[in-house]
Amino acid sequence: SKDLYFEQAAKKYLSESGLTEVYSMSILSSQLTDKTLMRDHDFEITNPLNEFDKTMRSGLLSGLLGYAAENSKKFDRFSLFDLSKVYLPSREEGIPSYEQRRLGILIYGEKQDEGLFILKKHIENFAAKFGLTIGFENSTGKEFVHPGRRADIVFNGEKIGKLFEVHPIVL
To answer: What 3-state class would DSSP assign to 19?
Structure first.
């Protein structure tokens, strides 16, 4: 299908660009969501398998930060990406959630301020590779985002993503 082809082409391009692909779990531990301060859209499973893993991920950042925490023990610098589904609360009666494919990129260990620009370049190159015209706008952020080091990614006048540096309190 067209979606599968795009996903495979995107993963190949990102890997060839020097990023390492990671696969994070769809169900998050409550410890991870509490530590990362990202609880806005996550929702609890009605009948979880255990008392600790009961939150469906609504974004990729928690998983990427988990990988960053582990990799930072062994490596000074690395770049990761995750292109997979997230689960968002449905607005329709009787349907608890819906899936949406998202891309998350994490750059770790670069000199101050360089990581943000490296990330921006990866996003610009990705958009150009697939014929997308994107822009960036100043944005306000959540408590886990470093003040002044964030922007919205805009496509056809619509905000489709965020570019930001994680606040030091999270790391």
So the answer is: coil
pLDDT at 81 over 80: yes
Residue type present at position 35? K
Measured distance CA(106)–CA(64) in Å, rounded: 7
Dihedral of the alpha carbons of 58, 63, 65, 66, in degrees to the nearest 10? 140
**Helix/strand/coil (H/E/C) assignment for every residue in 63-74:** HHHHHHHHHCCC
pLDDT of residue 33: 56
Q: What is the pTM of this model?
A: 0.83
Q: Which two tokens stand for residue 61?
A: 């950042």
> Phi/psi of residue 79, each to 5°?
-135, 125
Q: What is the CB neighbour count within 10 angstroms for residue 61?
A: 24
